[in-house]
């Protein structure tokens, strides 16, 4: 995914996989088996951790993968231990951010509740929307209004808000000063007020109102303590020059190459393509080319463009000119450019859900 890092001179576009995944080096990754047409789990050496077992799987996010069996969705960890048996209708049933404070938000029949790491229901499915716990509390929504609960599922306050925001690990309820008309429509009268919400249920008007109103992030409702620091090397696009490049964490350009595309670094490696050259190359953090890949290889651009557990997915068109439907083969490749697994179906990370 892309996230904006803003300074006074430049907006840096950064492709971040898995919403800045706190499990920076998952033990395994997902692969597709051509013989069974099922998905399994493999490590970076090609050792099969879980034989092909599921109709569909997503790449690991926060140590968890969603899998589909007999038309239903479940959740499995990277040790191949099933956390939730496949009984859910929607792959978005599980909070993409995974477990926080040993609980995860899950959607069943349109209502959200919270489960333990053993898959046991702890807080009943009674909320229209929820988010992960942050410092002992989580926001929940019912009928378009927001409040906060503790890890026992009890409301810590009777006050309901128009929206919520979490900044630097602190939860705030937002009174947007809504004025409702007879037909149910509304408008905001004045600036919103932010109330700091504490774990014990006490709350007070926040002192830094202007800062909170102007605070921006990819999603203001995530607990900031899960974010990692700014990477040492950042992929960015220079609009003026029309090229991709790399900067260090201070915002200084590094390297003089004129890249047509760049990926983020993961585990010390990234993938680039040069302007005027066909094909892609694997580079290290010194921006040295380690391997030029087959010029017919194309990376799966989007949310999965960087090494995941030391592997990255590429595709190659294998259809003939007279084929009516384009056919591709997919490959999991390590940082040496070696093919670990060949597949005929791509693996894609799924967007946020839950």
Structure commentary:
- With 354 residues, the chain is an all-beta fold.
- Among the domains are: 124 residues, no CATH class; 111 residues, no CATH class.
- It has one helix and 31 strands.
- The strands form nine sheets. The chain has a six-stranded antiparallel sheet, with no helix packed on it.
- A hairpin with a 4-residue loop joins β26 and β27.
- It is globular, with a radius of gyration of 23 Å.
- The two termini are 17 Å apart.
- The relative contact order is 0.14.
- The N terminus is likely disordered.
Short précis:
This protein is mainly β and 354 residues long. Among the domains are: 98-221, no CATH class; 233-343, no CATH class. It has 1 helix and 31 strands.
Major sheet strand order: 22-23-24-25-26-27
Helical proportion?
A: under 10%
The shape, in one word, is globular
Mean pLDDT: 83
What is the terminal-to-terminal distance? Answer: 17 Å
- The gyration radius over C-alpha positions equals 23 Å
Largest beta sheet, briefly?
6 strands, antiparallel
Proportion of β residues? over 45%
Unreliable stretches, pLDDT < 50, 5 or more residues? 1-26
Given the helix and strand composition, which structural class is it?
Answer: mainly beta
Number of helical regions: 1
Quantity of strands, as a count: 31
């Amino acid at each position: 995914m892309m996230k904006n890092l803003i300074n006074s001179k430049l907006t840096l576009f950064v492709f971040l996989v898995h919403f800045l995944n706190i499990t920076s080096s998952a033990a395994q990754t997902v692969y597709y088996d051509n013989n069974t047409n099922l998905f399994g789990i493999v490590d970076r050496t090609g050792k099969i951790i879980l034989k092909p077992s599921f109709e569909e799987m997503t790449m690991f996010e926060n140590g968890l993968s969603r899998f589909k069996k007999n038309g239903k969705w479940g959740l499995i960890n990277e040790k191949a231990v099933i956390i939730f048996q496949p009984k859910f209708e929607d792959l978005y049933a599980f909070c993409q951010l995974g477990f926080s404070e040993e609980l995860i938000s899950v959607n069943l029949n349109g209502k959200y509740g919270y489960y333990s790491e053993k898959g046991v229901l702890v807080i009943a499915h009674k909320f229209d929307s929820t988010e992960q716990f942050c410092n002992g509390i989580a926001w929940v929504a019912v009928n378009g209004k927001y409040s906060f609960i503790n890890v026992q599922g009890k409301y810590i306050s009777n006050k309901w808000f128009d929206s919520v925001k979490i900044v630097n690990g602190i939860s705030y309820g937002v009174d947007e000063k809504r004025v409702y008309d007879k037909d149910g429509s509304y408008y905001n009268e004045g600036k919103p007020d932010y109330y700091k919400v504490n774990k014990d249920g006490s709350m007070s008007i926040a002192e830094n109102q202007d800062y909170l109103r102007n605070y921006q992030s990819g999603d203001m409702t995530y607990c900031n303590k899960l974010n990692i620091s700014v990477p040492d090397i950042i992929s960015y696009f220079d609009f003026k020059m029309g090229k991709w490049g790399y900067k260090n964490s201070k915002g200084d350009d590094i390297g003089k190459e004129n890249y047509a595309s760049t990926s983020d670094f993961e585990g010390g490696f990234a993938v680039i393509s040069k302007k005027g050259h066909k094909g892609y190359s694997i580079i290290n953090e010194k921006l040295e080319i380690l391997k030029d890949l087959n010029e017919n290889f194309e990376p799966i651009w989007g949310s999965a463009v960087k090494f995941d557990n030391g592997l990255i997915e590429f595709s190659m068109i294998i259809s003939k000119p007279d084929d009516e439907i384009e056919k591709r083969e997919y490959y999991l490749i390590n940082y040496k450019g070696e093919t670990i697994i060949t597949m005929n179906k791509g693996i894609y990370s799924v967007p946020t859900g839950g």
